[in-house]
Design a protein that fits this description.
Layout: E1 5-13, H1 16-26, E2 30-35, E3 38-42, E4 48-53, E5 66-70, H2 74-83, E6 87-88, E7 93-94, E8 100-105, E9 111-116
Parallel strand pairs: 1-4, 5-9
Antiparallel strand pairs: 1-5, 2-3, 3-4, 6-8, 7-8, 8-9
């Protein structure tokens, strides 16, 4: 397994509206989509920042910002990590466009994710 780069970050916050405003109007990030309690904002290179409000039913296990490590084969990377005793806390999720992710708990006790993004420049 080879980690190519960080391509995704997500955070859960009690200050969803203020955080969304900050990302759009101060940082200049472009919303890919926004719904109550959830927003996905894209970077110019296609990387993504997602904000989860406390009312979002997604990723309720987030207690801190979570980063996604880009890999070219998420199934093989997960299998390799599991063989090394790493605990995964959800299955591999795959969207229609081929984007895939799965979350794991690292030895520091925090949650991270493996991420696959078809067509990403680092692939």
């Amino acid at each position: 397994m080879k980690i190519k780069e960080l391509v995704w970050i997500g955070t859960r916050t009690e200050h969803f509206g203020a955080m969304l405003n900050f990302c759009q109007n101060v940082m200049g990030l472009t919303p890919a989509f926004v719904e109550p309690g959830f927003a996905a904002l894209d970077m110019p290179n296609g990387d993504r920042f997602e904000i989860f409000g406390t009312d979002s039913p997604n990723n309720t296990f987030y207690t801190h910002p979570v980063v996604g490590f880009l890999v070219d084969d998420i199934v093989a990377a997960r299998a390799e990590m599991e063989a090394n005793g790493i605990e995964f806390i959800d299955p591999i999720h795959t969207e229609e466009d081929g984007n895939a992710w799965t979350h794991f708990r690292a030895p520091d006790g925090f949650v991270y994710s493996l991420t696959f993004v078809p067509g990403h420049p680092a692939n």
